[in-house]
Specification:
Length: 217
């Protein structure tokens, strides 16, 4: 079973990584409630994205079982954010990229977010769409840093799950020196408020970056 790691990130939160190697039919067998997910399985996905979708739910179920004896399937709210039906005290966030799947489950958190990204030129090519001018200057020509900026902003977005946020104007990060692991300071700017978050990051492999945040209740 390709459960790569299961790591406590706080007293009440677990981060899991899954190395995606098995076919879809094997992942269906690992789901705690296959019938529930069959009714919600997104049509039209290619084989890789279907396997990512399934593995994320297998992983989330495994993390939940580490925290409670009352496992329950995942649902999605109108904004697409996953949640455990009947367990409002638990937050969950899912992400996948290439052959890696990540999940974060926390008890008693106001919100959680995680994102994993394959380091590739795409983020650098699209920088003007999601980075402010100051962030573009800070990222320079570092492709990995561009991906880390993108991942951190995805994590910020998932924390709040509010449609219509403009990444380059409302989800901002302080300049930073990229290391193998560290903490970034992110800001959510709304019409009448500003919220600050500490976003943790590391590289699970040399080719990927992962970010996460647990917003305490």
């Amino acid at each position: 079973m390709p459960l790569h790691s299961l790591s406590p990130v706080s007293a009440e939160a677990l981060l899991g990584l899954w190395h995606l190697t098995e076919p879809a039919d094997k992942l269906w067998e690992l789901l705690p409630s296959p019938a529930h997910y069959l009714a919600r399985f997104p049509d039209g996905r290619d084989e890789l994205r279907a396997r990512q979708w399934l593995a994320a739910r297998v992983l989330a179920g495994q993390l939940l079982r580490e925290l409670t004896d009352a496992p329950t399937p995942l649902e999605n709210d109108p904004n697409g954010r996953p949640y455990f039906s009947g367990l409002p005290a638990f937050g969950v966030s899912l992400s996948h990229s290439g052959e890696w799947v990540a999940a974060l489950v926390a008890r008693g958190a106001a919100a959680v977010g995680t994102d994993i990204e394959l380091i590739r030129p795409k983020a650098q090519q699209l920088a003007r769409r999601f980075l402010s001018e100051a962030e573009q200057t800070d990222a320079g020509n570092d492709a990995a840093k561009h991906c880390l900026y993108w991942s951190a902003k995805e994590t910020l977005y998932k924390l709040h799950s509010r449609r219509g946020l403009v990444f380059k104007e409302q989800l901002l990060l302080n300049p930073f020196e990229r290391r193998e692991a560290g903490v970034l300071t992110g800001h959510l700017l709304l019409e009448n408020s500003r919220r600050q978050h500490q976003i943790h990051y590391f590289q699970p492999t040399p080719d990927y970056v992962l970010t996460y945040c647990v917003d305490a209740a």
